[in-house]
Amino acid sequence: MSDFDLIIRGGTIVDGSGGEPYVADVAVKGGKIARVGQVSGSADQEIDAKGKLVTPGFIDVHTHYDGQAVWSERMIPSSIHGVTTVVMGNCGVGFAPCRKDDHDLLVSVMEGVEDVPEVVMTAGLPWDWETFPEYLDAVDRRPRDIDVAAYLPHSPLRVYVMGERGARREAPTDADIEEMKRLAREAMDAGALGFATSRLSAHATGQGDKIPSFDVGDRELFAMGEVMRERGEGVLQIVSDIGSNYDSEIQTLADLAVESGQQVTFTLAQMNQDPEAWRRSVDKMRKAEEKGGRIKGQVYPRPIGMVMSLDATVNPFCCSPTYAHELVQLPMAERVKRLADPAMREKLLAEEIEEAKTPIYRMARDWSKVFLLDNVADYEPDQSMSIEAMAAREGRDPLDVFYDLMLRKGGYQMFYCALANYAEGSLDSIREMIVDPNTIVALGDGGAHYGVVCDASYPTFVLTHWVRDREGERIPLPQAVKALTRDPAEVVGLKDRGLVKEGYKADINVVDFDNLQLNMPSMIDDLPGDGRRLMQDADGYVATIVSGEVILRDGKSTPARPGRLVRGAKQDPARHLETA
Known about the structure:
The protein is of the alpha/beta class. The protein folds into 2 domains: 1-101 and 115-150 and 263-302 and 421-580, TIM Barrel (Alpha-Beta Barrel), CATH 3.20.20; 306-417, no CATH class. The chain has 20 helices and 25 strands. Helix 5 (154-162) packs across helix 7 (174-190).
């Protein structure tokens, strides 16, 4: 019998602690890292990692795999970018608790907020649960490639407790609050990591209505904080509104962190309309921490944006009546032919756009933030390459320039629209956010925005752009790996992972760093109900390992499905050993 299940030989260990890399072997047994150093002995399997990086598996604490975790064994695209643990239920949207009569509402919420088509959910969800513990059991029954954990989502909870009153965003009664608290305790007993909500005005249902959790006051949020304080554990995840009350919103979250004594984490971005607001947020976080609060901003490491094309959900004509009602359902070749007709061109260029159900669709015409995405996935383009700058050079209207470009490649030409994190035309401020001790890197949104983004590829972007390729100031490799691994693990209480050290969970990546490459996104058809989505893969992942089993080898999925539902917070093995 072999001494170990797996030995990774001679790799350069970047262990997730932020310490300097070193060359060593890593031995795995029983799903745990058994030895790091010079390892003798035999193994059932060996991986030659000489000249390669060996890192902990990456952790994305902000995803929306709530549906995909039920209907699929692979949490892609996350797992093809080295991610070995994801957290879902973010933004307070999900599918439990839920009575049968509320299925359509929760589908509409997910469709509007996270761009998951109704037909995909209708085909993919068996709805063999009602309570949140029953939903977790359904997730637990499905074998999968990587680990998933979940928050209790606010919108389903509110509707489950309050019915139509909850959907209409009415104020809760004392009895409503007590029932929400009871169900939150029940959810955490079953394994929820905490509670998640959205207070963002841009989040709407598929019909354009505000979601149940929007603008319902602070009472429910602080009630969930009471539950966390009572238990002495739990995470409160929030996406806040970014309007005129943004500063007061962040102050509310800072107060919540102090009052609950538990971890609060929220989406932090550089807003185009207020580029310095994030600095004020960081200041509020620091002051909260001085009072004993625990609060972290979640930062996306490249522009928060959307991919646009005639083949995607959004393009600058998707709100044009003629395009939306006459052209969008046509096969691509026929659509391009109709769009190339001079009369149609003249009509669309002159036509007033309709009000969008989703507010960000109107931002598709912010020409200073729209860039050609052409053959190379460039997420820090020079401002001179914007559609606005191109139009200025040509002395033309930006919409006219865009019209010509969108017909290239048979209608499959892609564009990138930077909605946030790119106010200054560079990522310099985002680098400041990433390295700030009050933030973590997150927001991959895997399982959501299927026709608009493929943001779950961000770990590969961090390693290629921020560590290796950027022309401006970069981020050191040990710091970048720590940001992808141990930092998010600690914030959500999964302290058994995120380090390449003895006793920790054997979630590991072997990476050919010199040849690591983020490829262009493309549309694929692999969702239930023949649904389509953007996919973005990468080259350079030699192996991704979950609980000691290789799930990805040289970019190809293996039959291994060691991923499990993670129920609740996990202890730090090192501290456990110290106190044993």
